[in-house]
Specification:
Blueprint (H helix, E strand, L loop, with lengths): L1 H15 L16 E7 L4 H14 L12 E6 L10 H10 L35 H9 L2 E9 L3 H7 L8 H10 L4 E5 L6 H9 L3 E4 L2 H6 L5 E4 L19 H12 L6 E7 L1 H7 L3 H25 L2 E5 L4 E2 L3 E2 L12 H10 L4 H10 L5 H9 L5 H8 L28 H11 L3 E2 L5 E2 L3 E6 L8 E4 H11 L5 H9 L1 E2 H4 L4 E5 L9 E5 L4 E4 L5 E4 L6 E3 L5 E3 L4 E4 L9
Parallel strand pairs: 1-7, 1-8, 2-14, 3-4, 3-7, 4-6, 5-6
Antiparallel strand pairs: 2-13, 8-13, 9-12, 10-11, 15-22, 16-17, 17-18, 18-19, 19-20, 21-22
Helix pairs in contact: 2-11, 2-12, 3-5, 3-17, 6-7, 9-11, 10-11, 13-16
């Protein structure tokens, strides 16, 4: 009954979606490879302003790499709200189902009266197979993730893990490791533990931690290369001798993945456009987007030469209500390009880059730092606002003596980052309405070797159907979900089983199942189960096992019962 109900609900959602889309999934020509590029939290205004930024800096670069391939917009949303965060929105791109804020490739609980499309209550919290997983399981394709945030962050996790909470890195990290993703390049040195690295090495992976030379020289088909304790540096702030650009990371991943004769799936995220937008840092937003566009150029060049690759470029949602033009900047609509862009293009660091420099130097160096890196010195009022930031390590004012917000200028912020971002913005005519996500449509660009493009206005569900159709997997993720993520209460009827509680807060419950002649011990969030009572008698599954504490349920592959006979 579960499968029938879910299928009917999916058909209803499909019927309600896609009416403005100009292409039927049945008409999409097949491709071998899929490259999905996501500039996280990028509003249309950010793309427009980044284009101006690039053109002003280099008159020979009037257009972004994606410009010839812009073909429409996408309406992104959560299952029960028009504005989504990265977790449910990217999850929809790769699973075909909207989900709730914070949910990583996990089916949402029903929210009657608020759900945008029908939701099957019986599937609440069920992990959902993603395109990355489906392409590996069904077609034996290579898979890759390239990001500048930590590898456990929402967007990469959406492709390769499952959790109702994007914050549970302790659940997400081992899943990405054990999902056998061929290439992972990004941030998060501290998040790959010894057990995870040992598993990867046992499977033939090269593993690099803050080792740029090692990554560049590596010729192995399987590789993890991580940089930074958690996230990587902003492109404008990074040391090119220590961390690669997203462009280089994308090229390296394609070099490896394209060796698989069956094809590949690659997701590339411009992760920190979103972070800068949350912080209302225009310098960070524009430079991160330009860096992302260079990665798009690499992917598009590869696809045009290869002739078998679909490239899709789409943000997961908007962010910050960014605008080129601000109400209190009088006459902004008549300013020249020099007046609008000369300052911002001359700034040498993001707000975070300034924070790092200010906290690494004595307060006597403040004016020099701003003069050398932004072309101005602080006024007395700005200097006092800086000194009163709670996290300014080198302030001459003791922390317990720093003033409250009401006594200082509008530039005051509890955080040093917030102060710098507001300060830089005040020197421009850019504006922000919020520090959070926004619900406007986002850009869509695509390259298809045979020209079957998703033009017009598409929903996030439509876009999933388009990509799934192109790689020959339309509807397949749902079928695979019912094959690989079955509730243990359904799958193990007739077997004796026990759920042993976690021994410590850091541990997870263990499922022990007894068959006629065999016993299985199942610990969640990996693809390894133990057979019998010997510690080294292990079985490696083709998917990870997920445990959900909200319903005390293990989600298992149907094939697991064969090991109990």
């Amino acid at each position: 009954m579960r499968k029938t109900t879910s299928t009917l609900l999916l058909l209803v959602a499909m019927a309600l979606c896609g009416r403005a889309s100009a292409i039927d999934p049945a008409d999409v020509k097949p491709v071998k490879n899929l490259i999905l590029l996501i500039p996280d939290g990028t509003s249309i205004a950010t793309v427009s302003t980044a284009r101006w930024y690039q053109w002003y800096k280099d008159p020979n670069r009037q257009h972004l790499a994606i410009d010839p391939y812009l073909c429409g917009t996408v309406r992104t949303f959560s299952s029960n709200a028009p504005i989504g965060d990265s977790a449910p929105t990217t999850s929809c791109y790769v699973t075909g189902h909207p989900s709730r804020t914070g949910y990583i490739a996990t089916y949402p609980p029903a929210d009657p009266g608020n759900d945008i499309f029908p939701v099957d209550p019986s599937r609440a919290y069920q992990p959902m197979i993603t395109l990355l997983e489906a392409m590996r399981l069904v077609q034996n394709k290579a898979t890759g993730l390239v990001v500048t945030c930590e590898f456990t962050h929402a967007t990469p996790a959406d492709c390769s893990a499952h959790s109702y909470s994007r914050k549970r890195y302790d659940w997400i990290a081992p899943q990405i490791v054990h999902n056998d993703v061929d290439v992972v390049i990004g941030g998060g040195v501290s998040l790959l533990d010894k057990e995870g690295e040992a598993y990867l090495r046992s499977r033939g992976y090269s593993v690099y931690r803050d080792d740029l030379a090692g990554m560049r020289a590596d010729n192995n088909g399987k590789m993890w290369a991580l940089f930074g304790k958690k996230e990587m540096d902003y492109d404008l702030d990074r040391d090119p001798a220590q961390q690669p650009a997203l462009e280089e990371m994308t090229r390296k991943a394609l070099e490896k993945l394209s060796k698989n004769e069956n094809g590949f799936f690659l997701m590339v995220e411009g992760s920190k456009v979103d972070w800068a937008a949350h912080g209302n840092d225009p310098v960070g937003m524009l430079t991160e987007y330009v860096a992302f566009d260079k990665a798009c150029a690499v992917a598009l060049d590869f696809a045009k030469k290869d002739g078998q690759t679909l490239v899709v470029v789409v943000p997961d949602h908007g962010n910050s209500g960014f605008s080129l033009g601000r109400r209190d900047c009088k006459g902004y609509d008549k300013l020249t390009k020099d007046q609008l862009f000369s300052f911002v293009t001359g700034v040498k660091n993001t707000a975070q880059g300034f924070v790092n420099k200010l906290n690494a130097a004595p307060s006597t160096e403040v004016q020099k730092i701003f003069k050398e890196n932004a072309g101005f010195e602080l006024t007395d009022e700005e200097l006092q606002a800086l000194y009163n930031c709670k996290d300014y390590k080198n302030s001459p004012i003791p922390e317990d003596k720093r003033a409250e917000k009401e006594s200082l200028s509008a530039l005051y912020s509890n955080s040093l980052y917030g102060f710098v971002a507001k300060l830089l913005t005040s020197k421009t005519c850019f504006g922000f309405t919020t520090g959070g996500h926004t619900g406007e449509d986002v850009i869509l660009a695509a390259y298809h070797p045979q020209g079957t493009l998703p033009i017009g206005v598409n929903t996030n569900i439509d876009l999933h159907r388009y990509m799934a159709s192109a790689v020959g997997l339309l509807g397949k993720p749902d079928e695979l979900t019912q094959e690989y993520f079955v509730p243990h209460t359904e799958l193990l009827k007739g077997y004796k089983y026990t759920i042993l509680p976690a021994k410590t807060e850091k541990d997870n419950p263990t499922l022990v199942v007894k068959g006629k002649k065999q016993q299985l011990t199942i610990v969640p969030f990996t693809n390894i189960i133990r057979k019998g009572k010997k510690a080294n008698d292990e079985i490696r599954l083709s998917t990870v096992i997920v445990y959900v504490d909200k319903n005390n349920t293990f989600y298992l592959p149907r094939s697991i019962t064969k090991y109990l006979e």
